[in-house]
Structure formats: C-alpha cells, structure tokens
Design a protein that fits this description.
The chain is an alpha/beta fold. The chain has 9 helices and 9 strands. It binds SN-glycerol-3-phosphate and magnesium ion.
Length: 247
C-alpha cells in the first residue's frame, strides 16, 4: 500500500492553506503556507455545474466570495467573476476561486504536498470518483509526488480505491469509532482523519495497535497540537500553523 510521502515531514498540515491567516483555499493561502515553511497543505475540492474541479469548502459561494448561490448551479466562467478574498480582508480583494489544476501546479511550484479533500459527492459518489479518476489521469504522471485523497464520503472513497489501488487515501470522520478502523483496513485506506473534539488517548492506542496512522483536525492551540503529536498522532491540520512552528 502506498504510504504518506516521507520527509521533510513536520506532522503539520496547513488547513485550507493557512485558513487563519489568509482567505482559505486561495492562492494567497497556499503561497503563505510555503513561506511559513510548511510542506503539506489540505484543501477542499468539488465540482461546478460544468463538472470542473475547483477549490472551495462550502456547498455555496456565499460565505467566502462576493457572489451567491450553490456551486452546482454555477459554471467555471461564473466563478471567474467572483472575488474570493475581500470577505477575509480588503487586502486580498481580487483573489479568485482556484481550479484544482491550478492549485496542484502551485503546490508543485512551492514544493507543497497536497491533501485533496473531495466535497459535495454525496448525491453521486460514483460520478465524483470517476471525475477525479479522469482528472488525475490527465494531471498526474507516475513520477509525480502523489496527492493524498480524502473524504467524509465513504462510497466515493471505495470507488476511488478501485480506480487507484495504490493511491494514498484517507477516510475522514467527525468522531472516532472502532468501526472506522475496520473500514480503513477493509479498503486499504492510508490514514483515518478524525475530529479532535472527542478524540481520546484510548482511541489513539487502538488505531496504533492496528497500525493505522491518525491525522487530527483542526487544532490551532500549539500546546494541544504538540501534546497529540508527542502522543503519536501522525499529523494535525491547523489554521494557524505559524503558532505551532514557533515551539
Ligand atoms: O480533512 C480535515 C478537515 O478539512 C475536514 O473538515 O470541514 O474543514 O473540510 P473541513
Ligand atoms: Mg477540508
């Protein structure tokens, strides 16, 4: 099974780029992640009405742009009209919603490993898996550093595992359960990504005993982050990686 890319490995993943410091999931956010010295970023991707992969967290553009509407009702050309930075600060006006292709090129340019989280797939997980398969076929060669694919949508991940028997894939859950370990083992998923809120040392021990790496989201308190990393969590997602790098 494909494992997470090795060093330089900090156990620290910039969440949506660096969502606490720059408008999430934008060029500025990924660039700043690289400037901070991160080597790994997470971002969310979903399909537009015309089935183009773009980088956006919410189902609608309302919160993070000056536009309105569901992404599934908007084309890539519609998105090009939107400002995805001003909501965060006027300093970032004119940021755009990046395409997945642009984002992966940026990651390559800055030497950032990519965690692609697939959103919006629940209504048609198989179509989403097929579109991701086609996208990665066109945009990745064997020699490239493979991105980590992740999702809350198990059906989509199971379909992706069939397309990519050797790809690093993470199952995301809000709360850890022993069943989630079994699911990861059954489908040869690479890691289990859990919400930190109810996660316990006992949960970590169970995962470790089963050789399953845990990635925890989202931790912005440096003390808590280092406690979990010292306890043996493989990596954490953070909106404020700058605070964690100061240790
Ligand atoms: O993959 C970790 C985290 O990104 C999952 O939650 O809502 O921030 O995408 P969310
Ligand atoms: Mg995410």
């Amino acid at each position: 099974m494909y494992e997470l890319n090795p060093p330089p490995y900090q156990g620290l993943i910039g969440h949506r780029g660096v969502a606490g410091l720059r408008p999430e999931n934008t060029y500025s956010s990924f660039k700043y992640a690289a400037e901070l010295g991160l080597n790994w970023v997470e971002f969310d991707t979903q399909l537009t009405k015309d089935r183009k992969w773009v980088v956006l967290h919410d189902a609608s553009v309302d919160r993070t742009t000056n536009g309105k509407g569901l992404l599934t009702d908007l084309t890539l050309a519609d998105l090009d009209e939107l400002d995805a930075g001003h909501w965060f600060s006027p300093e970032y006006a004119n940021e755009r919603i990046p395409t997945l292709e642009e984002t992966l090129l940026l990651c390559q340019f800055y030497g950032l490993q990519a965690n692609i989280e697939i959103k919006g797939s629940k209504d048609d997980p198989l179509m989403h898996a097929e579109c991701m398969y086609e996208f990665l076929q066109q945009n990745y060669s064997d020699s490239d550093s493979l991105p980590l694919l992740s999702s809350f949508d198990l059906d989509c991940l199971i379909a992706l595992r069939k397309y990519f028997p050797n790809f690093p894939i993470s199952f995301i859950v809000k709360d850890f359960t022993p069943d989630a370990i079994k699911i990861c083992q059954e489908h040869s998923f690479t890691t289990l990504n859990c919400g930190v809120y109810n996660f316990t040392l006992e949960n970590l021990k169970l995962a470790t005993d089963n050789n399953l790496p845990i990635l925890l989201y989202t931790i912005n308190d440096p003390v808590v982050a280092h406690q979990w990393l010292d306890a043996g969590v493989t990596a954490i997602f953070s909106d404020r990686p700058d605070l964690l790098l100061k240790r």
